[in-house]
Please model this.
Amino acid sequence: MYKSFIRPILFKFDPEEVHYFTFTLLKNFKSLTSMFFPKPLEDKRLEREVFGLKFKNPVGLAAGFDKDAKMFSELSDLGFGFVEIGTLTPKPQDGNPKKRLFRLKEDSAIINRMGFNNGGVDAAVERLKKNKNVLIGGNIGKNKVTPNEDAVNDYIICFEKLFPYVDYFVVNVSSPNTPNLRALQDKEPLTKLLSELQALNEAKKSPKPILLKIAPDLTDEQLLDIIDIVKVTQIAGVIATNTTLSREGLSSENKDESGGLSGKPLTKRSTEVIRFLSERSNKAFPIIGVGGIHSAEDALEKLEAGASLVQLYTGFIYEGPELIHEINAKLLEKERA
Model:
């Protein structure tokens, strides 16, 4: 239903406008989900326990879709096992000038240069206070105007304000759309940032998992540094991967737009990063696999490569909520085999 009827209509319009239009539909016409989409699968065999949290199924929604925590309940109702909100920054910011979101239909991909547009952490907290039972990840970043040498303060502000309302944290230093942000992935500043957050975390009565989201464009040497950093800082795990700056093999009209590329062109590389981290660390920490998951087979490949959980973003936009159902159905089929 989604791919044959709904998607062709939505794809006729500007992608950012469509994004907020679908938010309005899901918010105000909840009955549409049961009419057009399969009923979410619920089965004990789909449950996963990862970094001390129990997930009702291993398929989550990646950050960037519900930046401001406006739709986590409705999105959970579509079948997601968890929803990651953000990236949130201490102060509201508009992000980069429009147009900043582009479909690459021939490549089943998206380029975005949103630039951490969000209403600020305080506004999101007010919405999260109404959460009843959705497992929430809080993806945090720094404001564009904050220099890198002061970035840790922005992450601390978001961490402290979100702490009572999220189940795990994700430190985002890998978006390509905030100037110089990826410099924070270098070993020294990243170790310092994560160490300070982890010290605050461990001082809490009940610490929460902190994960690091990394870029797919890191070299093997840099990935080995990531393994060392996880070991030194004792954070809970890694999300692999964010969007890529690569444009290799693209054929769509918008292929030369600046920003981060997501979708099918990222499938292979994100799985390679997952496998490298899992094998070279001897499975020392959990990995959430994200990047180019457009089918149940794509998700299983990432799980078999070493991921404990997976997340959807571009695949969700292209394939629809049916993809969540297909992945979980395939996992159950595998259990029975």
Remarks:
- DSSP finds twelve helices and 13 strands in the chain.
- The chain has one domain: 2-332.
